[in-house]
C-alpha cells in the first residue's frame, strides 16, 4: 500500500516550463502547490564545467536516462515497434527545469493561421485541399485570444526581438531589443531583401541586455559563448524555468518541489482525479499525493502515457478515428535546407547563441499561395549562429571522402567557411500517426512504454522540397561558391539522426469533446480537475520552435486553473 | 623528471631492490653498474629555466589489451592522419581516448535501453543488438586483424598505410561480411570516436595539448565572445581548456 500524504490544492507532474509557470502563477494567488519532478535539482552553479561538447552534446549529460525509460517506434501499424535504445531523432529532458534548461531559446509565436488551420484552409482553397487522412482541426482558440498570454511569456522570459512583418499582431513590442548581428546574419538579411523577402531577427530567449522582468527577476546579458542547446547556461542569460518562474513560486512559500519523485499514476474516481501515485526513486517507496487539482506538465510523451496508464480519458483508435488520448501526434520536417561553402571567407562560427539568427516567414503558414502546390503550410526559413562545436561540425563538399587525409584537410578548411540556411517545416497530423502503450516493452517499474506510430507523408516531402529550393536561392544570393548543397529529398522518418525535439500532440485542445482531449484552458473534457499542459495540446505542429506557443498556453492554463479553483468546479467556458 | 615519477609509481623501487640485493653497503654506493642504476640526483631547477615535461599519466590502458590498442591506434591515424596541417590522431591520443570511453558508462551502454526482447528492426528503428559498445569493439578489432591476416598474412598495424586503408574501406562498405556485428556500423563508430578523440576537451585523454582545436581554429572553452561577435574579420585565438577554467 502506498503511503498517503495530506491533501494539497494542486499537484504538478514535472517541473519544467509548464510546471514552473503553473506553480508561479498559482502560488501568487495563494494556492498550495506540490511539484513532483522525477529528476534532480538544478542550479546555475552546476554549469561550471559546461563548455564540454563531449559530455553535454554527445553523451547527453542532461537528458533522460534511457536505461530506465524510453519510447518505442514503428513507421506503421503492421510493423513491430522497437525501443529507441539510444538517442537520435529527439532528446528527452529530465530534472528541474526539464528541457527548458537545455533549449536554444528560439521563441516564436505560431501564426494566426495555425489556430484556425482547417477553417482557413477550406476558406481559401476548398475542402479538397486537405488530403485524405490528414486530420487537421482548429484549436478552439484564436491567435487574438492567445495574444495576451504570448506577451506574458515573452515579458517573463525577456525575449529579444523585433516585429515579424508577416506575423500576428502584437499588443506590445518585445521587452528587449534583438541580439547583435554577425556577418553571416547580415549577409542573410541583405540576400533576402534582394529577393524581396521580409527578414527579421529571430526572437531570442538569450538576453540581449540585462533585464528585470515583471516578477522582479533580474538576469544578465548573453555572452555569445556558443554553448546553448544541450547545455545549461552558467550566466542565467538564457531564460529557463530555474532562473525565472521556479524562484518566484518558491519565494511565495507555497511551492514545495519534490525531486526524484516519479509520478506513475493519476488516481481518479468518477470523472475527477483524486491525486497521483509516485515512486520516490531514491528509496523505491510508493507514495500517494492527494490533490484537488492535478496538472500534467511532463512533456508530450509522458502526458499521453500517464493518461493511458491511469485509464483516464478516451484512448485514440486509429481504425475508427474515435477517442482522443494519443491522437494527432506530429513532429517537424527539418530536412529541407541548403549548405553554402565560402572559399574566400572565414566566419567566427564558434561564437554564437542558441537563438542568434535571422529568419523569414514568407514561406510559412499560409503567407504564400498554395493553389498550385501539393502541400499546405510551410516553414520558417532561417540562418542561425548557435556556435559550431568541433566534434559535430565536419561538413565537407560533396564528393570528399569521409575520412583520411583529404577529409581532414577539407573538414578543417571548411569548418570556418560553411553557412547553412535551414527550413523548419510544419508537420501535419494524419489519422494513422498516434501514440499508445507498447504491448511488449516496459520501463524500470514494469509499466508499458509509450509507442509512436509515425512516418513522413507526401505532404512532408513536397514541403521539404519546396523549402529546400527557397533555402538554395537564399544561400546563392549570399554569395556561396558553386559548391552548394541543397537537401531536397526527405526519406522515411528515421529515429537515428537528430532532427528536433519538437514532438507535439497526443492530448490536443479543441472546441469539441468528440475531437479533442482538452478545452481552450487545457482542462480535460473527461476529468474537470485535470489540466494537461504542454505541446501535447497542439493539434498540429507549425513551422517554428514550439516553446513560445507552449509558454503562452501554460499562462492560459494557469488562468483557467485559478478560475476553476475559485468557481468550485465544472467545465470552463 | 620522468625518471623520478616512474620510480615513485613502482611497487618496488630501484633503491630498495638494490638494498635488498646487497649492492648498497653502509649507505655508500658501490661504483660501476650499480651506481649508474641509481641515477644522479637532479639539480634543483634554476629560475627562468623551462620545466621538464611531466609524464602524461593519462596514457595508460583502462580497457584495451596492448594488441587491441595497437590496432585502434593505427586505424585512428588512418582516419585522421598526421599531415602538413599538424598532428594526426595518434599524436593527439585518440586511441587512449577511445580506450577510456569504453572503460566507462559509454562502453557499457549504461544509459541506453538494453532490455529485451531483441528483434532485428528496420534501419529507421536504430540499433537493436544486445552487444555493448565495448563488445562491439572487441569483435571489430579482432575482425580487422583477421581480415588483414587473410589478405596480407599480417596484423592490421603491421600493414602499410595503403593496405590499412584498403582494410578500413572494406569495413566501411560492408565488403567484409561479419555475422555478429555490422562491419560498417563498427567502422562508423570507430570514425566517430576518432573525431571525438581529436576534438574533445583534453580532459578525456585525446586532443593532446589542444592541438586538434588549434588546427581547426576552435578556441575551446571561452567565457565570452561579445567582443568579436559582430566583427567581419576572423578572430584567431589561442584555445583554452576546461583545465584552464578549473585552475584559472
From TrEMBL, chain A:
Keywords: FAD, Flavoprotein, Oxidoreductase
Superkingdom classification of source: Bacteria
Positions of transmembrane segments: none
Single GO molecular function: oxidoreductase activity, acting on CH-OH group of donors
UniProt keyword Flavoprotein present: yes
Residue intervals of the Glucose-methanol-choline oxidoreductase C-terminal domain: 437-553
Annotated family: Belongs to the GMC oxidoreductase family.
PANTHER family linked to this entry: LONG-CHAIN-ALCOHOL OXIDASE
Stated name of the protein: GMC family oxidoreductase
Organism (species): Brevibacillus invocatus
Lineage, opening ranks: Bacteria, Bacillati, Bacillota, Bacilli, Bacillales
From TrEMBL, chain B:
Top-level taxon in the UniProt lineage: Bacteria
Sorted UniProt keywords: Membrane, Transmembrane, Transmembrane helix
Entry's transmembrane regions: 21-39
Alphabetized InterPro entries for the sequence: Gluconate_2DH_su3, TAT_signal, TAT_signal_bac_arc
The protein's name in its UniProt record: Gluconate 2-dehydrogenase subunit 3 family protein
Origin species: Brevibacillus invocatus
NCBIfam families attached to this UniProt entry: TAT_signal_seq
